[in-house]
Amino acid sequence: MPPDKSETASMVLMVVVVNRGKGEKIASLFVDHGVTFNLLTLGKGTADKKILVYLGLGETEKDILYCTMPLETSRLMFEKLNELNLSKPGKGIAFSIPISGVADAASCKRLQGAAQKRGGISMELPFKYNLIIAVTGQGYMDEVMDVAKSAGASGGTVVHARGVGLRQAEKFFGISIQPEKEMIFILAKQELCQGIMETITEKMGLKTDAKTIVFSLPVNGVAGLPSSDI
């Protein structure tokens, strides 16, 4: 039985990107506040080498933490993350995405965690940022990011992936698709989002060797950005 819409309307997926080895510490902080659904993957930062030198950073390997929680809890967690000086250069970045639906009531309760309270909070909030997700062929990460930066993107995080069901996809699109993929997460201001996606599609899209597919999701909370950008 699907959950009541009021239960899912106030849920978000929070994504936290920090330097390799820091993800477990962030996950422990979340668990201490009742956030029990946490997944950790490995990624790679795409900041320009000159920027890394300027920031005094020698590493680009990243931990990426995915957590589901009520919107009310996410506001508290953003405060806790900012207390860790996440907004300082090189510390990391966090953002949340509204969840539009969950398959059943049991899954909903699992995703909400122990911190869920009765009643929902409206998700009708202004979205100042979008999360752009570009799925490209392996080896094209740098080219896609260069194209994105030319349209205003400041950087991104890469997750290695593998495509499945490719035989059917090749028949549908009429093109050859390699199984090894790279997913690039780019957090961009809303006014820049469409231009970045169009530029990637034009120069690195399905008609090119990179075979990049691009889409975006609304972001309803951020941490780890300079206050002038929020």
TrEMBL record:
InterPro entries xref list: N-reg_PII, N-reg_PII-like_a/b, N-reg_PII/ATP_PRibTrfase_C
One BP annotation, GO: regulation of nitrogen utilization
One Pfam family hit: P-II
One function term, GO molecular function aspect: enzyme regulator activity
SMART domains: P-II
Protein name: Nitrogen regulatory protein P-II
